[in-house]
Amino acid sequence: MKWGRKSMLVAAAAAMLATAACGSKAGDSGAPANEAGGAAKPGNAILATLGEGNDNLQGKKIALIMQFNEGAFSAQYVAGVKEQVESLGGTLQVQAAGNNLADMASKLDAAVNGGFDGILTDHGTAEALEAGVKKAVDKGIPVVAFDANLNVPGVTVLQQSDEEMSKQLLEKMKEDIGGKGNIVKVWVAGFAPMERRQISYKAFMDANPDIKEIAHFGTADKPALDTQNQMEAILKQYPNEGDISAVWASWDEFAKGATRAIQQAGRNEIKVYGIDMSDEDLQLIQDENSPWVASIAVDPKDIGRVQTRYLYQKLHGDQTDEKVVLEAVMVTRDALPKDKKINTTELGEYIEGWGKSEQGIADWMGRSDK
């Protein structure tokens, strides 16, 4: 995903990227999910379980096909899928395509023909996924997608409330900078959530002429490192205090890179606002010397849990909505404890609505509050 002059090239290079996320490397070639997400630590999570009389759903084999598995966000998302699949008595295999859409389509085809009972997809484009998803549906294999603009009858698509997330974050930034100033935008085209976030960004900028965008960039290729490098160049171009008021980062990988560049330059008067949240992000936000002061997000583990629940509803024979919107919450440094560091498992103690979503828990399911 690229941005500005350079970014446009990367958007093309990413060849129709499909969305935003974050993290470390994912399991490939059927690698178990725990290799990607690490040991699941449910904390106070709410997990669906198989209700009485649903023994026929035990032992289901689930495939998770990912466009990429980069960053802590993706690792935590995979961990959420894994713990929910296992709580429902199934097994999970993860296939990550390294941001190669052709490879993602190939892995999807392999899953359709590989004896899986259900398929989850993470990101991707309609062009890359539609043929494989239709094959799955024709074979009676249920599919639930996350952050892809798919429109295939019988398929449920999950997405975050991207336009609203973007709007709320921009309003928070506006409040903090006093309604005026110069900002840097980090964004990339070609991903469904990014495109939705851009809608709110454009409307906001049109409505706030005293806030000026002085630079924009972004890429999906090593996003945190590329952002750091490009932000360092922009800080040299605008060297004086007051030249830049804030950075609006449409993905937490972008926010991490911008934060590191600003810290290293000693320019912490510049504030960073991000979208999405992981344990790594939270550590940066809690640092009182960090420019990253707020982020809006859905718990990535909850995304994985909810997506899995809808897949199991389909396996149960339930009718499910075509689109499910996951509501986000704002996380600000001011709301976090000053006397200790916390992780996202503990974040729900301080941020209402974090980490305990009950979306997708059907009446026939049991539940386990961990």
UniProtKB/TrEMBL annotation:
Which cellular component appears as one GO term in the record?
Answer: outer membrane-bounded periplasmic space
Look up keyword Transport and say if it applies: no
Coiled-coil-forming residues are none
Signal sequence coordinates: 1-26
Annotated Gene3D superfamilies: 3.40.50.2300
Residue intervals of the Periplasmic binding protein domain: 62-318
The molecule here is called: Sugar ABC transporter substrate-binding protein
Q: What are the record keywords, sorted? A: Signal
- Record-annotated membrane-spanning stretches: none
Q: Which GO terms describe its molecular function?
A: carbohydrate binding
Which compartment or compartments is the protein found in? Cell envelope
Please give the family membership noted in the entry.
Belongs to the bacterial solute-binding protein 2 family.
CDD domains with a match to the protein in the record: PBP1_methylthioribose_binding-like
